[in-house]
Amino acid sequence: MLSNSSKYAIKAVLYLAINSNEEKKVTVKDISTPINVPQAYIAKLLQELVKADIISSTRGPKGGFYLNEVNKNQPVINILNVIDGEKRLTSCMLSLEKCKEEKPCPLHNILSPSRKKITHLLHLKSIKDLATEVQLGNAFLPL
Amino acid sequence: MLSNSSKYAIKAVLYLAINSNEEKKVTVKDISTPINVPQAYIAKLLQELVKADIISSTRGPKGGFYLNEVNKNQPVINILNVIDGEKRLTSCMLSLEKCKEEKPCPLHNILSPSRKKITHLLHLKSIKDLATEVQLGNAFLPL
DNA sequence: AATATTTTATGATAAAAATCATATTTAAGA
DNA sequence: TCTTAAATATGATTTTTATCATAAAATATT
Ligand code: FES
Ligand code: FES
Fold first, then answer.
1. Contact assessment for residue B71 and residue B56, using Cβ atoms and an 8 Å cutoff
2. B-chain residues near A117 (CB < 8 A)
3. To the nearest whole percent, how much of chain B has pLDDT over 90?
4. Is residue A94 assigned to a domain?
5. A8 alpha carbon to ligand 2 midpoint, in Å?
């Protein structure tokens, strides 16, 4: 469904959404343990996310990663699109070149509605939305 | 979503559902081209499928792969479970050890219903069902 | 029985994804 | 301005997945 990398990325971003802001930045060392992802690995992912404007960062002492308001209000799908690419969730499940209603593969007619719903929801829900669910105790994060 | 291997496997099984039976077996050489999968690769997959009783085969001259009635009436999910393993479609989308309603990850509450629907439909639909859709012209196969 | 045709078993190679490692750059604070 | 703490850039290594190759076993046909 999702690659390992994008799972890690989502966990990291949600962690930042809950535990950081412009004044309180989080270092790669401090995020690695609570989200249970190897430090060197999450470091690389965070760098990609910064470059894609999903999260923010500053270097040097007192630096670290954080989410500003613009970051928080992005849809969750942005994370997946950066890490996994847009096609992962939308390309044909049998790898036909063009996935469309006019020439559907045998899985399309039965599964496409559910898949579309998934991507729709990922567009609809913002990072902040998910973070709020965690804060309300309606959802939980690792370990 | 699905591995390359299980996409290939589904295409192959559907091809057999449409083009084979006990009297008319299909050789690995004859299936490779129409489903557009390298011969050595699909050969290996077909062997796994035979071992798992998803499809049937006989060796020697006039031998080949085919689907009997029992094979055809199996749910499509059987193919995926053999090739990709059962967890691929059901394990937590953020890799939490246990994916369940009582302690859902932040993606669970929003996406789990759609995912459950997908696996439910894959249980519900038989290989024959999908083959019929192709034969009726409601779905299409590669190239 | 011999031959030819097919699957089966087994493993080798290549490509991609996941993971690890480190030198460089930036910025804060003494 | 020097030192230190952080991200950034870059690339190496490992593991997994995908792909390719082939000798052995089985069966139909002659
Ligand atoms: S054509 Fe295959 S999923 Fe749409
Ligand atoms: S707990 Fe993550 S998908 Fe169910």
1. yes
2. 114
3. 92
4. no
5. 14
Residue B118, number of CB atoms within 10 A of its CB: 24
Question: Which nucleotides of strand D come closer than 7 angstroms to any CB of the protein?
Answer: 4-11, 17-22, 25-29
pLDDT < 50: residue spans in chain A:
none
Domain-embedded: residue A26: yes
The string of pLDDT tens digits covering residues A31-56 is: 999 999 999 999 999 999 999 999 99
Q: How many distinct structural domains can be found in chain A?
A: 1
Which residues does B70 contact at the CB level (< 8 Å), separation at least 6?
none
* Domain hosting residue B34, numbered range: 4-85+127-135
Chain A positions touching B103 (Cβ under 8 A) are 140
Residue B97, domain member (yes or no): no
pLDDT given for residue B2 in this prediction: 95
What are B2-61's pLDDT values in tens digits?
999 999 999 999 999 999 999 999 999 999 999 999 999 999 999 999 999 999 999 999
Look at residue B38 in the predicted model and tell me its pLDDT: 94
| Selected residues 84-143 of chain B with any CB under 8 Å from a CB in chain A | 88-89, 93-96, 103-111, 114-115, 117-118, 121-122, 125, 130-131, 133-134, 138-142
Name the nt closest to B37 by C-alpha to C1'.
D19
- Whether B35 maps to a domain, the answer reads yes
d(CA A9, CA B120): 29
pLDDT tens digits, one per residue of B104-114: 999 999 999 99
CATH of the domain at B34: 1.10.10.10
